[in-house]
Specification:
Elements (H helix, E strand, L loop, with lengths): L3 E4 L2 E4 L3 H14 L3 E6 L1 H9 L4 H5 L3 E4 L2 H9 L10 H13 L5 E5 L4 H12 L5 E5 L8 H13 L4 E5 L4 H9 L7 E4 L3 H6 L7 H5 L3 H8 L1 H8 L2 H12 L7
């Protein structure tokens, strides 16, 4: 497994996109059950406020550096090979890589209509992509019977990969809870990738992403929803500094 770096107690996988794809492909070839968490700074801060979330990310097969701030930290720690493994880019790369092997994809998440539009766009980009099915869960916890029903639906689809887009930390909890219940070996939580790749929300231009300013672009797009998330970033920087100089320690 790829090495990991401790950032505020969250063990981030020191990987680039090629390494992430190689790891996922190995799980699929061996039918080995694992899940992937794509992790920007705000997810690390969620774990700071609620340490019970940390094991969900630390037990994953991969906890990838989704944000540029995380990428820069990993490089500073000496992992020079690392680059961003962003949810939307990871979905496109895995779909392209798995196309020739006929691996089947199930899409769990998104508002009503989003998953269907996402599948349509992915098939337009990757003709012949085997889409095993989709499900848009309600904005509330599922009952036990509803959960059993969706597990049966995913298993009946013979999916190899389940894409989970229900936002953090719900998607990490869902993947951890369903690992072993689902016959699909790989679960990948990709957050807003459903909205971006379906065209429901606009992605930041590549140069803004590379500059580490995607958070500012998204804040400008959805200020009322996202201001609390991104207002934590100065505190994130302070906590990382205190960890680096040894004032605070995380097991």
């Amino acid at each position: 497994m790829p090495s990991r770096a401790n950032i505020l107690g969250v063990h981030i996988s020191a990987v680039n996109m090629d390494q992430a794809l190689e790891t996922i492909d190995g799980w699929l070839a061996r039918r080995e059950s694992n899940y992937v968490c794509v992790t920007p700074a705000h997810v690390v801060m969620d774990c700071h406020w609620n340490p019970r979330l940390r094991p969900l990310l630390n037990r994953s097969g991969l906890t990838t550096p989704d944000g540029m701030g995380i990428v820069w930290l990993l490089k500073w720690y000496g992992h020079r090979h690392v680059n961003r493994v962003y949810g939307a880019d990871l979905m496109l790369a895995v779909c392209e890589q798995s196309l020739s092997l006929g691996r089947r994809h199930f899409f769990y998440g998104g508002a009503p209509g989003t998953a269907e539009l996402l599948i349509e766009r992915l098939k337009g980009r990757f003709p012949g992509l085997p889409a095993a099915g989709f499900y848009s869960p309600p904005f509330r916890p599922l009952t036990d019977s509803e959960d059993r029903e969706i597990v049966e639906k995913i298993n009946a689809s013979n999916a190899d990969i389940v894409w989970v887009g229900i936002s953090s930390p719900k998607q990490e909890q869902w993947m951890a809870d369903h690992l072993g219940k689902l016959r699909a070996p790989v679960l990948i939580g990709v957050g807003a990738a459903f909205d971006f790749l379906s065209g429901r929300k606009k992605q930041a231009p590549p140069w803004i992403q590379r500059a580490g300013l995607e958070w500012l672009f998204r804040l400008g797009s959805e200020p009322r929803r996202l201001w609390r998330r991104y207002s934590q970033y100065p505190l994130f920087g302070l906590l990382v500094f205190l960890q680096a100089i040894g004032v605070t320690r995380y097991d």
